[in-house]
Sequence to fold (368 residues):
Amino acid sequence: MNPDQENPSLGYPFLREEFLQALEDSQSACESSGWNPIHLQLQSESEAQQQSSAFMPLYLKDHSMGEYVFDWAWANAYHDNGLDYYPKLVTSIPFTPSVGPRVRTTQPLTTGECRQLVDEVLEVAEETGASSWHFLFPGAEHLELFSDERLLQRSGVQYQWHNRGYESFDDFTASMMSRKRKMIRKERKAIVDQGIRVSVEVGAAISPEIWRLFYQLYERTYIKRNGTRGYLTEEFFRQIAATMPEQIAMAVAWQGDIPIACALYFFDDETLYGRYWGSVDEFTYLHFELCYYSGIEFAISRGIQRYDAGAQGEHKIVRGFEPVETHSLHWIKQPQFRHAIARFLEREKLGINEHILQAQEMLPYRKD
Fold:
């Protein structure tokens, strides 16, 4: 058995020390950006080793940006009642709404260690005056291990592609209804008709010139969409390109010898993670090609079982991305607000369940 499968925190790219350190070194996630790192570590019981047996990212925050589990309404309700919602504590991967482990360990995590981590978080909350703690996008194993009567559970939904043992992209589309299969073929043909070809470069094969172009396009996408600069600095991308290239891939679109668009992926043995993309101009269906179809082809070629193409995007459903329930855990200090939020989460859960059922009916796969 692959040790990363036995202990998924070892292979998950976003919990690597190199990734989190790059966020801080590049000033992307630091005190000045409202992500004050106060990470927790448990020490091993062996006095001879005195090394960390568990590491959990923890940030003290004075805003709710870059989290993708939206609690703006909670903050507004606090404000309307004359209470401070900020600062709050957050355990998450900044700017990364990808499900996965939230504690890095060399050995499988135990329930006792999780209980100890929660106790330590609540001590930090007392020391810092935090109103709450938010544990975002844990994988199924950590969700179960952190089951605690002090924490409220929230549900959400994302859309992810699953590899059903496909041997090629055509094998994947063959599992679809004829009309949807033709739609995808039409979209991919439009790329060829525009004189565009796509290559997927891995790790050190991604040239410094492509990295520079990618960052320009990343910034362009944020400015166009939100009127603001991206959360991540150019130094962040430069640092991860140097320190963890073996878990990075880049889909690059070309017209002739000119690169015109890029999409950044991370990956481990089980999952491909689509994160950011940008283009120099508008090209028909190019977003679908780089962010969905090229990623699916890459996953099939490497035997990767799942493609997490990022948060939101219901248009993914008809292209083969299935609705997946996501989770978060929340500790709310103020008793009345804890009760009100618990009732809200019950109602919200019903809506999420209904949405998942409706989305499943929209999937393009043949019913047989």
User: Anything to note?
Assistant: Confidence is low (pLDDT under 50) at residues 1-5. The chain has two domains: 3-157+324-361, 164-304.
